[in-house]
Design brief:
The structure is a single chain. By secondary structure, the protein is α/β, with parallel strands linked by helices. Helices cover 51% and strands 13% of the residues. It contains 29 helices and 22 strands. α12 links the parallel β4 and β5 (291-296). α23 (564-574) packs across α24 and α24 (579-604) runs parallel beside α25 (638-649). It is elongated, with a radius of gyration of 32 Å.
Length: 779
């Protein structure tokens, strides 16, 4: 929005007024609030202390004894170089002081939680909400601990939301007054989709929308009956589309199409936030009834960067504070321009963000009552009072819940308050101390220096199924693969494709009677032929330089990633794999190719040994010969690829014998290896019965190594059989056997129980029940 000089001056003047109001409300020295500010200030300037503080706050509710609390104080905070904290750490070593220290620490942290949490229950929150009303400030109430893992939990949260609506609507003393509050519901709640749908699967937005709307309809009917406002919060970026999709689908239903008192969040720290506002405006115009948009900067900045970095994805958020502030200003322009279709609520603790929104709205002809400002409970109270005093509708976001489920919220608030680039901490772009917290501004952390080739290796990035075009590619690949059902797949022995064998039907496990394809069954005679070809090809491949072998495997990885949707679709049908796990198999296979290529270069490079006159001794590794690869069905691409390319990268020949349940994906792997440049005799494909082909490979005198993944019974049998030297055998066979076992997860006393439960559920029941390292015991 282009502004004239007078408008710019008005923004500057209003911003200065707001800053002055903020700085005029420091906490009294030696009060609990003052001590909290000191902790926050220390955490702001000391990243190491910040980590210790957040870890301790997160773990405290699970510690059941005074000894446990004292032990964690000592372990977490020794060496902090803060006299007060260092003294407490020292007291924790003395048993007589532990009960006192434990009580003081618990009360202190719970008091800090109370600073950000309006009450443990809706009833307990009512006095706080009434006090806000006396200051002519409204509220929106959020229930803490929203994420659910079962339909039972989701139903329970629906009941909690319904109880919240009833409790708030029956209270007659929590309603602010004034022109800005006319026609505005006094009852306002904020909900999260993660509370009403136990499985937020980004790859299945239709299912998530349908499932969540079964509960959302009940919630909306209660809100409409009581004239309450319902706002949809947005959490992590990967779930954003799910929230917006369910929101849009609900608002376009005839029953709710005319209801105005609903809203949704837009996070300005996302790079595409302006585009999101444009989509919401189009939705409001299509709907024919306006709704609200709460513009915030965003609460998951650290997490979004970490998740993107871990997965090799583009970072969806602006990484510099000034860029987010600029985005917020542009989003403000877009929201103001979208009036009356979108009603703007500006959620910010930044005086500049408040000032620019207020002045721009006035310049656009909007009334003071047409916009709203929102702030978090317990934060930026001086700014809140100044905005409310200016006549603007001002609302506080007040979480309600117990301390344990609220601890994640508290940690998030502490992160925002202590981050060097915190939106809530840094204030305006010129730097201002908000609520006494420092405003250190630093550049985003740079990537660690990568010196060795292995560190420089980039893992394949998983598909972002929360992105529409990525889902469309997967769906197209599934449709294309269905067209290939019934195809025949030959043995690949040397340069021959052998089809004149008995055929094995490969069926789709999710559709009984549906045949994916037919695979030729190898025989003992085929094993003899394949081994002979492999031995003939081995010498030349062994003598091929390690960098050249690595380059071929790198090309293979590129081909895998290029065809990832095709390969993932095949595994979805052949092995019944969910999309994420099928794509993960492709990523892991590509990573194996690159990893073993790098390792082969390192191990194949000669290293001079000793310094004896007249001698030159080099130490290096080279291939041993022919490897038999006997693979399992549950990770049909990744495991067989890892075992095969490990051998191939080291200069060996590999004969791949896949599991009978998943042979087609192994066929595609061998074709890709050969296309990238692996000689026909070095990568061969030989499916068949384990009792025939598998046993023949294990016993063949021309096989030097056996790589096996599977059951303990079969693995032990292979080890025993391979130990016998047979006529014509030139070497002692080596066996690498990964065999089955029982896996336990141990939950310690200070574990984050929310994370533990979700991790255990995934470990025990995820991967469509196919994971060999499934959690089968819980301690």
């Amino acid at each position: 929005m282009a502004l004239d000089v007078s408008a710019e001056q008005s923004i500057d003047e209003f911003e200065r007024e707001l800053r002055a109001a903020v700085e005029s409300h420091p906490p009294l020295a030696l009060t609990p609030a003052w001590f909290q500010e000191r902790l926050l200030a220390w955490a702001t300037g000391d990243p190491d202390f910040r980590v210790k503080l957040l870890r301790f706050v997160d773990v405290l509710p699970t510690l059941r004894s005074t000894k446990a609390v004292a032990d964690h104080v000592r372990q977490y905070f020794r060496g902090t170089h803060r006299p007060l904290i260092e003294g407490a750490s020292g007291l924790a070593s003395t048993s007589v002081f532990r009960p006192i220290l434990s009580q003081v620490v618990r009360q202190g942290v719970f008091a800090m939680a109370g600073r950000f949490i309006a009450g443990a229950t809706p009833e307990e929150a009512l006095p706080t909400l009434r006090e806000l009303a006396r200051e002519n400030v409204g509220y929106t109430v959020d229930l803490l601990g929203e994420e659910t893992l079962s339909d039972v939990e989701a139903d329970a949260y629906l009941e909690r939301y319904l109880h919240l609506l009833r409790t708030l609507s029956e209270d007659a003393h929590s309603s602010p007054i004034g022109e800005q509050w006319e026609s505005v519901p006094p009852v306002n709640i904020s909900i999260k989709l993660s509370a009403l749908c136990s499985h937020l699967e980004p790859a299945a937005p239709d299912w998530v929308s349908g499932t969540s709307r079964q509960r959302l309809r009940l919630l909306m009917r209660e809100a409409m009956a009581r004239g309450a406002f319902v706002n949809f919060d947005v959490e992590q970026y990967r779930y954003r589309e799910l929230v917006h999709r369910a929101f849009a689908d609900l608002l376009l239903e005839d029953e709710f199409r005319r209801y105005e008192h609903v809203g949704i969040v837009v996070q300005a720290y996302l790079r595409d936030a302006e585009e999101e506002i444009a989509r919401l405006r189009a939705l409001a115009e299509r709907r024919g009834t306006p709704f609200s948009v709460r513009l915030v900067k965003g609460a998951y900045w650290d997490e979004e960067q970490i998740v993107a970095d871990q997965n090799g994805w583009p970072v969806p958020v602006w990484t510099q504070k000034q860029d987010t502030d600029d985005s917020y200003d542009r989003c403000s322009d877009a929201l103001i321009a979208a009036w009356p279709h979108l009603r703007a609520a500006f959620g910010t603790h930044n005086p500049h963000s408040v000032a620019q929104a207020a002045v721009k709205a006035r310049e656009a002809g909007l009334r003071v009552a047409d916009i709203e400002f929102q702030m978090l409970y317990g934060m930026a109270e001086g700014l809140r009072r100044a905005v409310a005093k200016g006549g603007y509708r001002t609302r506080v976001y007040g979480p309600v819940g117990q301390v344990i489920p609220g601890m994640a919220y508290l940690v998030r608030r502490l992160l925002e308050n202590t981050s060097n680039q915190a939106w809530f901490n840094a204030g305006a772009s010129g730097g201002v101390r908000v609520d006494g917290v420092g405003d250190t501004m630093v550049a985003a952390p740079s990537a660690k220096k990568r010196d060795d080739p292995l560190s420089a290796m980039q893992n394949a990035a998983p598909v972002q199924f929360f992105v529409l075009d990525q889902r469309a590619k997967m769906q197209a690949a599934l449709a294309q693969r269905r067209k290939q059902f019934g195809a025949k797949y030959a043995l690949l022995i040397g340069d021959k494709e052998v089809l004149d064998r008995e055929m094995a039907a490969v069926e789709y496990p999710a559709e009984t009677g549906t045949t994916i394809g037919f695979v030729a069954k190898g025989t003992a005679a085929d094993v003899d032929a394949a081994v002979a070809i492999a031995r003939e090809a081995f010498s030349a491949w062994r003598d091929t330089s390690a960098p050249e072998r690595a380059a071929i495997l790198s090309r293979s990885a590129d081909l895998l990633v290029e065809r990832r949707f095709e390969l993932a679709a095949l595994m979805a049908f052949e092995s019944g794999k969910p999309w994420h796990e099928a794509d993960g198999d492709v990523c892991e296979a590509a990573d194996y190719m690159r990893y073993y290529g790098v390792q082969a270069v390192a191990l194949g490079t000669p290293h001079t040994m000793g310094n004896v006159a007249g001698e030159h001794n080099d130490y290096f590794h080279e291939g041993r010969g022919v490897a038999a690869i006997i693979a399992p069905w549950n990770f049909p691409l990744a495991i067989i690829c890892g075992m095969s390319v490990g051998a191939i990268a080291g200069g060996n020949a590999a004969i791949l014998k896949p599991a009978g349940e998943s042979p087609i994906i192994a066929y595609e792997l061998v074709r890709i290896l050969r296309e990238a440049g692996v000689p026909d005799g070095i990568a061969q494909y030989l499916p068949g019965r384990g009792s025939e082909v598998g046993q023949a490979l294990v016993e063949h005198p021309g096989v030097d190594m056996i790589a096996f993944t599977g059951s303990s019974a079969v693995g032990l049998g292979i080890i025993e059989s391979a130990a016998k030297a047979r006529p014509g055998q030139a070497s002692v066979k080596r066996v690498m056997a990964e065999m089955g076992g029982k896996n336990a997860i141990i939950v310690d006393e200070d574990a984050d129980l929310d994370q533990a439960v979700s991790g255990i559920v995934a470990a025990a029941f995820g991967y469509a029940g196919q994971k060999c390292s499934v959690c089968s015991r819980l301690v």
